[in-house]
Amino acid sequence: xxxxxxxxxSHNASDLAFKCSQCGSRLRKRKHSLGAxxxxxxxxxxxLLILGMLGQLLVG
Length: 60
Ligand SMILES: [Zn+2]
Fold this sequence. Notes:
The protein is mainly α. The chain is built from one helix and two strands. The chain is rod-shaped.
């Protein structure tokens, strides 16, 4: 757990907190950005491709 400064009131809030306890400003941003999703999707797609290739190899 770490402390982050609220962008609005610079109150130190836990980075686990969704909102600043002082001013109610939203603290959390989506850390899993598009890049992370793309990476995840790419890995999934690659896995599926490999599985498909293996399946084809097994089936013959
Ligand atoms: Zn605040």
